[in-house]
Amino acid sequence: MKIRILTLLIGISLNSFAQDQILFDNIWILQDLVIDSDSHLPPNNEEITYVTLDFDSYVYESIEYFNLFGTTCESIGGLIEFNNTSNNFSFSDGPYESLGGGCLQSENSIYEGIYFDFFYENYINGNTFDYSITANGDESMTLIITSFNGNQAIYGSEVLSIGNNKKKDISLFYNAQNSSVEVDSKKPFEYISIQIFNSLGKQVLYLYKNNEEKISINIQDLTDGIYFVSLQNEIGQIIRKKIIKY
Questions:
Q1: Tens-place pLDDT, residues 6-31
Q2: How far apart are alpha carbons 142 and 219 in whole angstroms?
Q3: pLDDT digit string, tens, across residues 206-232
Q4: Is the domain of 143 the same as that of 187?
Q5: CA-CA distances (angstroms) from residue 126 to 121, 149, 189, 242?
Q6: 83 and 115 fall within a common domain
């Protein structure tokens, strides 16, 4: 039985250096999920616009850590480590599922279960995920992640409906002087949603903004400790950061 607990944890240091920077430099949008040779196209509705995969990294006490996040209505993810001799990775802490309300629409809830099981089942059967990246003629890329039994999650590096829009340059950081989370973009967001979770995976803050370049979120009333900030903009770009409030 799956245990629904927080998406992120501080874990073991990662000593592999074979990660491909392209994984971290792109927004990966699920195009197809192939399970037992059957295609499962992702939903596209008012509750789930895109099913995404994000690779992120951060430095804590001079050690670099790598995260993987898959997002539908909820998120699945954890710390990962890369094999230093081949294109594969495994979870060193996780996978974990976020504690939220889940999908309201039944079709989305079913799909979320299929998507999350792709990671869970592979984790308990060897915990090795092979991946390949292919450059396409239109400057986009295709990422294919393959599990132990040949099931595949196929992603594109951009959403076809947004044309030539590129990943936006966004900074997200904690300002200790003001006890605030700062979001800065070179261009105004059409809209942006921001969630903050505590170390137990409980959402403690949600904001929705539009037509703003700079956003300052006062978290002075939150107790000191570790928090996880999740940001999603209008093109489906998702940024997650761990902050330490003190």
A1: 333 333 333 334 557 888 877 789 99
A2: 38
A3: 888 887 778 899 999 988 877 888 887
A4: no
A5: 9, 10, 42, 28
A6: yes
What is the pLDDT at residue 131?
94
Q: What stretch of H or E contains 111?
A: helix 106-123
DSSP-derived secondary structure letter, 109: H
Q: Tell me the CATH number at 31.
A: 2.40.128.270
- Tell me the pTM: 0.62
Percentage above 90 pLDDT, the chain: 22
Whether residue 97 contacts residue 75, with contact meaning beta carbons closer than 8 Å, is answered with yes
- Has residue 116 been placed in a domain? yes
User: What is the average pLDDT across 139-166?
Assistant: 75
95 preceded by a cis bond (ω within 30 of 0): yes
Nearest to 97 by CA among 110, 121, 78, 124: 78
- Amino acid identity for residue 162 in this structure: I
Same domain, 86 and 107: yes
